[in-house]
Every structure is written in C-alpha cells, then in structure tokens.
Amino acid sequence: MELKSKTQGDIESINNITGFQLPYKFKIYGLVVFIVSMISSILLEIYLEEYKYNDLIKRIAISTAIVGLLIISISKEKIEDELILKLRMQSYNYAVLGAVIVYLTMPFINLAIVASFSSIPKMDGSKDVAVLGLLLTIQILAFRKLKKAYSEE
Known about the structure:
Elements: H1 6-18, H2 26-47, H3 54-73, H4 82-117, H5 129-151
Helix pairs in contact: 1-5, 2-3
C-alpha cells in the first residue's frame, strides 16, 4: 500500500470541501425554503410589528431565506459536466466581486443620500465587513495552498 504524499492529501481534502454538492432535487427544497422564509418575513413585518421578539424572528426568517439560497447554490444540475463546473466557478467569482464592490461603495452612496437631505450627515459603514474579510482571506489561503500543491506534483 502506497502512502499518499502530503500535497496529494491537501488537494483531496480541499476537493472534498469544495466539491460538495447536494442532489438536484434539493433545488426545489431550497426554493420552497426561500419563498416561505420571504413570505414569513413580510407577514411578520405587517402583523407582528409590536411583538417583543419581532427582531429575533425577522432575523431567523431572513437567515432561513439565505440558507434556502445556499441550498439552491450548492445543488447539482440535472446534467453535471465540465461546462457546468466552469460556469458555477465563474458565477461564484462574479458573486464575490459584486459583493465586495457593493460593500465598499454602499457607505458612500448612503452618505451622499443622507447628505442631500440632512444638514448633519453621518457615515454608517457596513456591519458585515468582517464576513467579507473572512471570505476573501479563506479564498486567498485556499488558492495559495492549492497552487502550491499542484505545482509540487
């Protein structure tokens, strides 16, 4: 029995994480979760405005909607081939780039809007910048590890 090289083990462990996909039928489950969560969020806003735990319940509904989108995102297509894998990777790249651009520009857009209607504008930054930093850090570290592992083969 041959021992696997360290780089081959690194590649396989990263592929196990990044290659994880749910079966195709989960796209429907994810869509149902997303739609029910969004409808719940809207109904909560209308009918439970004065409820003590309204913020917590709204946060749970929105988080559940995000989980529904995640389920859709990681579910397989009916036909999984190399083109689908390439398109999926490109779409993730566009999503990350779009998220970074939006997070970096929104505080300035908000400031411009508030400044046009207020005599004392205040700049509010995005509260989820740490998540974006973590996302980009993980991408950079995984890329470097994969690049090193593939160049050592």
